[in-house]
Sequence to fold (226 residues):
Amino acid sequence: QKEVEQNSGPLSVPEGAIASLNCTYSDRGSQSFFWYRQYSGKSPELIMFIYSNGDKEDGRFTAQLNKASQYVSLLIRDSQPSDSATYLCAVKTPNNAGNMLTFGGGTRLMVKP
Amino acid sequence: ETGVTQTPRHLVMGMTNKKSLKCEQHLGHNAMYWYKQSAKKPLELMFVYSLEERVENNSVPSRFSPECPNSSHLFLHLHTLQPEDSALYLCASSPGFGSYEQYFGPGTRLTVT
Fold:
């Protein structure tokens, strides 16, 4: 079983719609959860992080965490063509060497005008 | 993106060549990372340095040799690589080891022929 799983997509949504990106993780000891955005040919950039169960909102982005079900999601409201990118879910998993980030494979989002 | 720089941006090398990738961070961070990103695979952590000491070697073949002379510079020395080593190699830094914020450089696109 992969440690962090994401649907590779592409997820296609029309401009102005809500895009919902999902991520599941296998290690119940995971404590911190991150969403990175990666435009084609560019490096990942951190857009959201969440530590506690529930929702965390930042502008058009909302991260949702449910530790009991071991999933974290990212909602993008009023999606714009500029949101088209690959979204990487990352989980901080404690191990012997410290807290490392484990990344999912990413979900490619396409927002169509 | 300018906080973490990587050179070269593109590299083509034969299997018998020796080359080095360079990463420099201008953020005053104490931890630096090397990741490998292959097509259709999640980001893979290769090495972690904290205050110039290696704290993680994620089962990486010995043909990859990291060097961290100070907290601002990180190198990845390459020798006798295989075609399957062709990938995007990303450097990242964070304020401290295990910090949730990792800032990525633009990456080096490596092709092994």
User: Anything to note?
Assistant: The mean pLDDT of chain B is 90.
